[in-house]
Amino acid sequence: MSVVKAILITSILRYLFIFLNKQIHIVIDYDGWVDYFYIPAGLNIIVLLIYGYEGAIGIAIGSFIWNLLNKSSDMFAAVGLSIMPFISSSIAYYLYQRFIIQDKNKGWHAPSLSEVCIFSIIYAIINSTLHHAVFPFLLKFESFSIFSLLKMFVGDLSGALFLFILFNILTSLTIDAV
């Protein structure tokens, strides 16, 4: 039951964070396909650190619901755009577990800022590369460019680090209050 709960919570949060990110870009009058600041990437990092692979499934489901309801009436594109964050998140989480956690012979622990930075960089590289490898097949061919690849990398990295720092501040305030 806790697996279903983790997936459900992650799916809802993923949908809400994508919605929040779009609202922020409406306020600043930005209408681009790839964002310089993508808050859902930060949610992905936090969810993966808390839930692991169950979080990756929730990320895919939340993305699918968003894509189906808001982006495309094309089911193939909605599924494809939803699978990419799942694959990116899963690969990044595997690499994090394999090279950061296991090499230090530690069990799960609260990650340090340097570990989160490394994890965020791994995630941003994988996510931006995977999305840009698939863009020509799912969307328009002109959606692929080196500039949009770098822009997506910066957006994923900045959103991930911003949200993780905010999460740490909020949780430390909560712990201190208790």
List the helices and strands and how they pair.
Layout: H1 2-27, H2 39-51, H3 53-71, H4 75-101, H5 113-138, H6 146-177
Q: Features of this protein?
A:
178 residues, mainly alpha
Description:
It is a single chain. The chain has about 180 residues and is mainly alpha-helical. It is about 80% helix and about 0% strand. The chain is globular. It starts with a helix and ends with a helix. The mean pLDDT is about 75.
Task: Describe the structure concisely for a colleague.
This protein has 178 residues and is mostly helical.
β-strand percent reads under 5%
Rg over alpha carbons? 16 Å
Structural class: mainly alpha
Largest sheet geometry: none
Number of distinct helices: 6
Which regions contain 5 or more consecutive residues with pLDDT less than 50?
Answer: none
Q: Give the H and E element order.
A: HHHHHH
Large-scale geometry = globular
DSSP strand count: 0
The residue fraction in helices comes out at: over 70%
- The average pLDDT score comes to 76
Straight-line distance between termini: 29 Å
